[in-house]
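Re: Re: token formats

Sure, here are both.
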Amino acid sequence: MKLSESHLMQLAAVLDAGSISGGAANLGLSQPSVSRALAMLEARIGEPLFVKGKRPLQATALGAQIAAHGRVILAASRRASDTVKGFMTGTKGLVRIGGVPFFMDAMISRMVAEFQNLEPDVTVSQSYGNLPDLTAALQNDLIDLAIVPLGGPEAAAGFEFTEILAGRNIVSCRTGHPLLRKPRLHISDLADCPWVAPLPGSPLMSDLHSILLAHGMSEINIRYSGGSLMSVINYMAETNALAVLPFSVVFAQRKENRITVLPLEIPQPGRALGILRRAGVPKSLAADRLAAHVIRAFEDLKHLIKRHENAVIWGR
């Protein structure tokens, strides 16, 4: 016997309200339409669903069992409605975000956590990559947002870029590194130190090559490679190794006081960190809300980062 799911939902609503008029109001339906639906359900089953003469309405044994199934359907329907409403307002859904590894770990992951404290029904899936990988992921609809450094103000055709922070890479070392005691640093001082290899394909790697070219070196002493941000920091804190890192990453670690900036200017092109998205395509409202949160967070942070940068005596 096939029963109408809508009839079962209306039976449950009427019994929960204690009256046909109350159940109809809770469902946003008219009383006559609900009365007809319940009459059709009783006719279909061939048994009464309500105890005659009882007010508020009371279900028969069979009516109570059928109403229990109606409540399940009604609850699922309401959850589905909440999901649609949340998706349309950006308070529910999945946001897929990718970005350059060290920056994501040091800065963005914390902002994602702050965002989800405000929007607990939004799920975030984070991935890593450099600009070519992330551009391809956006193009193929594998991610919604990419956090990347760009060397110019204009994004490639088909994309839009929102700057969140001026990009600057620096040479980093442990606090207490011998080079910090030198009254004046030169790029040549870097030649004798061991190094942490930058991530392949990243701007960090191109800036390290610029250091080599500026000093006329063909190679440096790479002692460690392939680590995550935390492993790189742990390694540097126990050695005299140097690493090229974003200034903002070192800033984010300032309270730990384990690594610091080696105050030496290094050659690098002008860059900006920002949010890259596809242009001219429908956007996820949840992704819009996360992007707006990241932008606001950097509005508060970038002045502190700039003040910290200005406090460094570069090229001393």
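Second one below.
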Amino acid sequence: MKPLKRYQYERYAVLCKLAYPRVFKHTRYGFDPGGQRIIRNRSGKIMIRVLWSSHREEVIVVFKGSHSPSDWMINLAVWLKSCENFSLDYSIHAGMYYLLQQESLPARNEDKLGLSVMARLESILFPLIRKGKRISFTGHSSGGAIACVVADYVEHHFPKSVKRIVTFGQPAIGNWRFHKNYRLKHKTYRICCDIDIVTFLPPIPFIYWHVGKLLWLYNGRIYENTPTIIRLGRSFISWIIRPFSYHLMSKYIRNKDFFDDR
């Protein structure tokens, strides 16, 4: 598995952050003027951005995380739902399955009515793949979890078409069969930051499983594939001692930039 380079990390992280505002000037980041397609959810809100340029092989698909009260309510649907409709031999979080199956409202005049989010994304990606493009997926929170399932779906239909998957602060999404049958373990990078509680969700041991290579950004270092129980233990200790850590002189030295030169 190739290491994730700093410029790649920064590129995907910036795109994930910029996916949340309603307006995103994609041409500022090297994409063609016509190199963006938007996929909306059932309420007409932007859920996914597909970005590309004619002179690059890579297409980047960016998934938003939960960004409304209704989305957070959907996250509570923690039972498992079979992905037979996607021709995938495993089950995933029922709420996130619904997000992919919900109707996608048109974003362009030529968009057809009645398509699901997954079907609309397929109608955009598959023609690009047939033109020789390779697809990278990224997303934050629940968007990162959904990105893994969609990437596996695309790889199922077009082997070797997926370049990489990079997720930030994602919860687990699938059962053991998902963990076992996921095709892209060697191309998936799961970024966790410090004591991010969402990365431990859903809190149901041995039912939900993560996939890919874990990169844990903790205490100024990157830890690879730290077992969940160890990460949880260290995070719990950090939660307990965090108020006292602000008493250390290192914190006072670090905050010297708050003062003007006099």
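Residues 248 and 254 are 10 Å apart (CA to CA). Helices lie at 6-18, 69-74, 94-101, 117-130, 142-157, 176-181, 228-245, 249-254.
- S.
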